[in-house]
Amino acid sequence: MTYTFPTWVPLLAIAVAVIAAVVGFIFYRLRLPTRLVLIASAIALIAGGIFAPMLAMDKVILDDEKLEQTTGFWFSPTVKGFRLAEVEQVTIGTKRDRKNRVVEVWFVQKKDGSAAEIDPGDLRENNGPDIVKRLREKGIRIR
Q1: Cβ neighbours of residue 111 under 8 Å, at least 6 residues apart?
Q2: Distance (Å, rounded) from C-alpha 58 to C-alpha 50?
Q3: What is the pLDDT of residues 24-73, one digit of tens each?
Q4: pTM to 2 decimals?
Q5: CA 11 to CA 17: how far, in whole Å?
Q6: Which of 61, 59, 37, 46 is CA-nearest to residue 13?
Q7: Strand arrangement of the beta sheet that strand 2-4 belongs to
Q8: Sheet strands (E) in 35-101
């Protein structure tokens, strides 16, 4: 099973990029201050060049072998997860992040005695109940 963001999410970032580019062009044609043109151009580049591809490429894959999440910038993705055969149990808990916000964390206890702490991210959190159900069906204990 592959989980991704709905199509409208990266399209929204593309729409912001297009609108910002058009606004920047209009500002340029009206000879408004260069600062405004640069701000609109920066918004277009960031939304279209960073956020849209990032949102389009984020995915969580749950198959018979692994649970794997690919997230982050398109030019430097982060892959995190675990192989199902190595897992004893998963405990879903919370902790405080650097900004003192409470965030969900998956504590993965492996059969060899080692443990890992995984931040599930938005995509896995949004699909958490279905992922937990499917992991249980594959014999993984979830607490």
Answers
A1: 86, 87, 88
A2: 12
A3: 999 999 999 999 999 999 999 999 999 999 999 999 999 999 999 999 89
A4: 0.79
A5: 10
A6: 46
A7: 2-4, 59-62, 66-73, 76-83
A8: 59-62, 66-73, 76-83, 87-96
Domain boundaries, the chain: 2-57, 64-142
Q: Identify the three-state secondary structure at position 100.
A: coil
For residue 104, the model assigns a pLDDT of 86
Distance CA 31, CA 107 (A): 56
Yes or no: say if 82 and 73 are a contact pair by the CB < 8 Å rule: no
Cβ atoms within 10 Å, residue 72? 15
DSSP 133: H
Q: Give 81-104 pLDDT, tens digit per residue.
A: 899 999 999 999 888 888 898 888
